[in-house]
Amino acid sequence: MTSAISARLNAAFEGFTLDVNLELPGQGVSVLFGPSGCGKTTMLRCLAGLQSCTGQVRVHGETWQDQGVFLPVHQRPLAYVFQEPSLFSHLSVRGNLTYGQKRVPPGRRKVTFDEAVAWLGLEKLLERRSEGLSGGQRQRVAIARALLRSPRLLLLDEPLAALDHRSKAEILPYLERLHGQLEIPLIYVTHSPDEVGRLADHLVVMEDGRALASGPLTATLARLDLPILHQENAGVAFAAKVVEQDERWHLARAEFPGGSLWIRDENLAMDRSVRLRIQARDVSLTLARPEKTSILNLLPGVVQAVVSDGHPAQKLVQVMVGTTPLLARVTARSVESLGLAEGAKIWVQIKSVAVLG
Q: By Cβ atoms counted within 10 A, which residue in 110, 146, 262, 323 is the most buried?
């Protein structure tokens, strides 16, 4: 990981202290994840210069804050997207988009108007007044407007929190597009595990004002020392590539470091990169490869660790399939009867694979 963003931040409030020391990559989406009140938004505001704090902030080699240095927010080359988009109601979508772009000299523009419009799917909305847009459409306009400021860092503070389920489903595919298309790093705040799985390249897990963990998405989700991640929807997400299609059964085979998986073919093109999520509850383990089973996805693996899982009846097992870690939620009785311990060779049965994008 190339650390282009360095943040050592301290801030004290009544009953709460923020104390983080993070190195984040200079491309892709870094997600700050944790429960409400854990300090995610406070950290984002400190990065932006909106919140008073001590420490150091460096972005792409430029010092925004250090001892004796504090760039005010208007001097930091960033854009900030809030929960509420705050568009100019008297302007059209086009007018909102060009408002910020006009203030960026042509030679410093990293994102063109047409690129921002295409990435956020705004072609048919350009002449509409912003006050007549849906919540999801308004937030897409806000993100495109932020991109057109050509920031060196884009901060998004729970941009889907105020949206209903339908609006969230509408906007998520557009956010997913930004992974490979933007050179601008994004720092994204959420307490939604679904948004973590779909959007994060790098994951920061926060609790009580501190970063409990920071690292690449798959490896961080698979850690067993982070109970905050081991709720009902515990699992991992990782990248794969479509390498085969079975037209008769409407399936596609996606290859990843460690093997391949059959997934539902939702018009997936060959060689397309997809992100897959496997939840721990959808994984079972066996010592011998089953000969006749309805489960299509069977992979050899090696047990890395076994830990308690919140209830005496359950255990969480980390398994390496090639170089990809998976999690399985099984009963303590099964752990004992199968002799599951570090180094045990087993077969992983995967009952369900979600294609995130």
A: 146
